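Much of our argument rests on the idea that a fold can be written as discrete symbols. In the encoding step, the backbone of a single protein was reduced to a row of integers, each denoting a local shape. This step matters because it turns folding into a mapping between discrete strings. For completeness, the protein is quoted in full, as a sequence line and a line of structure tokens:
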Amino acid sequence: MSFVPIDELKDRGGLTLAPMIDFLFLMLAVFASLAVTRVAMSDTEINLVKAKTESLGVTKQINLASSQFKVINLSISDEGQYKWITEIRDHEMASCGEIAEELLRQYHRGLLPEDKSKTQIFLKIDKKAQWEPILKLILSIQEIGFDIHPVYEPTLDSD
């Protein structure tokens, strides 16, 4: 005598879809994260300057994984055009004043930390860019109280 009917113990011979749906969801999550990461990490129109970290005196490392920091990426192309780089797309900015206004707007709305030192602004500068737009942007951002940090490509050899 069995408590489970014999019909329930028989193999139905059908296709189980649950593992396939799990696999498709996993693949969707992987490709979505790759797409977002690739957009956030690369700016194909910028060729960064190569520099040795020892010669620049870089000793401070910033832990960006901490949620207390807000990271803003800006870039200057070789023609002197400004871009605000976000996770989704790049926003063309007409002038450094427009960038400063947007920073202040986000600061007053509470989108940026109250302590301005917790807002990390990284500037990707094309190695062929003219100095005038670079200097204008750096000074306009420092004028409103934020720090800006240039991004460069470290070299390993002794060139």
